Amino acid sequence: MPSRLFRRIPWATLRVRLTLWNTAVVLLASLASLYAVRIGTRTALYREADVVLRGEVNEIAIALGDLHPDTDAVIAELRRKATGHQERGWFTQLLNGKGTTLWKSESCPRQVIEWPVAHEKDENLVQVEAYRFARRRITDPDDEPFHIRIGMSTDYLEEDINDLTRLLIPVGLMLLLLTPLAGYWLALRATRPVGEILSRAEGLKPTRLGDRLEVHGTRDELDRLSLTINRLLDQVAGHVERQQQFVADAAHELRGPLSAMQSSLEVALAQDRNPADYRESLVDVLEETRQLSKLANDLLLLAETVSETRTVARDSICIAAIARQSVAMFAGVAEDRGITLTLSLADGLWIDPRAPGHNTLISGDAAQIRQVLSNLLDNSLRFTVEGGRITVLIMSPKNGEVVLSVTDTGCGIEEQHLARVFDRFYQTDAARNRADTRRGGGLGLAICQSIVERHGGRIGLVSRLGWGTIITIHLPII
Q1: Is the Cβ–Cβ distance between 149 and 135 less than 8 Å?
Q2: Percent over 90 (pLDDT), the chain
């Protein structure tokens, strides 16, 4: 629906907007350049004319000194210059110190003739309407002042500038016509890869998790966009696959107890039985119900620990105190099974957080950390035979971390299973000689890993078949 809406609004497309932006920028830059050319040409023409006018005034000043006192010879020189540049509208004027005109060319305009000489002390340039002249005050050898003016009509300069303008106008019109076309062509080339990405993205389906965007190998922003989207698709595909596997595994785990309950109830209802038989069937159903309840609780706990929207309660908790509580809770079970369960602390560690020098405080949720230790101790007790040993060890903090390990002398795990022991519903029962008949749901270690990672720590496992298992947890201390 959104893509159709964008197609109906032409100016909403990136291609059209790029064309408009390119056209506006190029036109403004071009018009500014053309205007700058006109202004620069005008400035250059006037500067050149000023240089020539100053040079002519300097020549007349030199001639006046050389030809003094022959004023007629100076006037003849002025006449020669005016006649020589008549086609360009040049004019000359010679005045005495009182401002009386001694001689002027026929082309000398009235505005120049009437220009006062009261303040003409130095050489300078004057613009009077459409006339420009250089003027200079000089003195002859008798110290008599004279004023020399040599100028020209600026109509010739303006005509040259207008000729240039008439040449620039067609160029501007061509730019006005060609810039949008060129801008659209460039925008088309620039947005074509984006269009291809959009087309491929619109064709992606949840049922085709293997589809990916094409990467051209140009290493530009579009390739980076495609790679970013592909990485996101990889994550989505992996998430969907894990969810599908999770649902399948959960259904498999639920099916076993439900089938057992159904079979027990069908057998009990098949014919009349005595109360003892019914009681035995109900006991079996109750056991399976407990197994289902435990599995449901584990699923809920796992969902809470992997949820990115739920935050971990951040309280200062003592990992040593929690370990002591967990060991005390499982001590009776261990004793009934003939297993030695001990808690060992490194030198300098204290269980009481109020004790001086206490250094096993971490930030997190005490209930979740307790759940981790309970799962680990439960696993160790299930796979350790009578006469075995389970040790919970808390080592001295190092590199800002406290290390806790749970070591058992159980049956161990075969090497081919070690890489998957933290996967959900993964069980190595076939490879381990259980000490009792209780079943696990395959979620314990997955829950432990999720909780530890959400607390900023890490968990690892080392095991050898027939020798036992060591699970190590690293948690950052406060």
Answers
A1: yes
A2: 16
Compute the CA torsion angle 358, 360, 364, 366 (nearest 10 deg): -90
- How far apart CA 384 and CA 469 sit, in angstroms, is 10
Compute the distance between CA of residue 90 and CA of residue 53 in angstroms, rounded to an integer: 10
Instruction: Please give the full DSSP string across 393-408, using - where no structure is assigned.
Output: EEPPPBTTEEEEEEEE
C-beta of residue 82 within 8 angstroms of C-beta of residue 107: yes
Instruction: Give DSSP secondary structure letters for 122-145.
Output: S-EEEEETTEEEEEEEEE-TT--E
Closest to 250 (Cα-Cα) out of 430, 428, 442: 442
pLDDT score at 461? 93
Pick the more confident residue, 348 or 220: 220
- Residues 366-380: pLDDT tens digits? 888 998 999 899 889
| Averaged pLDDT score across all residues of the chain | 80
What would you report as the CA-atom Rg of the chain, rounded to the nearest whole angstrom? Answer: 50
pLDDT reported for residue 459: 93
Q: Can you give the pLDDT at residue 405? A: 94
Answer for the pair 53, 136: CB distance below 8 angstroms, yes or no.
no
Q: Which helix (H) or strand (E) holds 147?
A: strand 145-153
User: 3-class DSSP state for residue 202?
Assistant: helix
Instruction: Say whether pLDDT at 101 is over 90.
Output: no
Residue type at 271?
Answer: Q
Would the pLDDT of 358 be above 80?
A: no
| The one-letter amino acid at 2 | P
Quick one: which of 370, 377, 345 has its CA closest to 452?
A: 370
CA separation for the pair 22, 18 (Å, rounded): 6
What does the buried/exposed string (b/e) look like for 226-264 if buried means 16 or more CB atoms within 10 Å of the residue's CB? Answer: beebeeebeeebeeeeeeeebeebbeebbeebeebbeeb
Strand order in the sheet with 145-153: 101-104, 90-96, 145-153, 131-139, 124-128
Q: Three-class SS string for 56-125? A: HHHHHHHHHHHHCCCHHHHHHHHHHHHHHCHHHCEEEEEEECCCCEEEECCCCCHHHHCCCCCCCCCCEE
Q: Map 19-45 to HEC letters.
A: HHHHHHHHHHHHHHHHHHHHHHHHHHH
Query: Can you give the pLDDT at residue 436?
Result: 42
Peptide bond preceding 275 in cis form (omega within 30 of 0): no
How sure is the predictor about 431, in pLDDT bands with cuts at 50, 70 and 90?
very low
Residue range 176-216, pLDDT digits in tens: 888 888 888 887 777 777 777 777 777 777 777 777 777 77
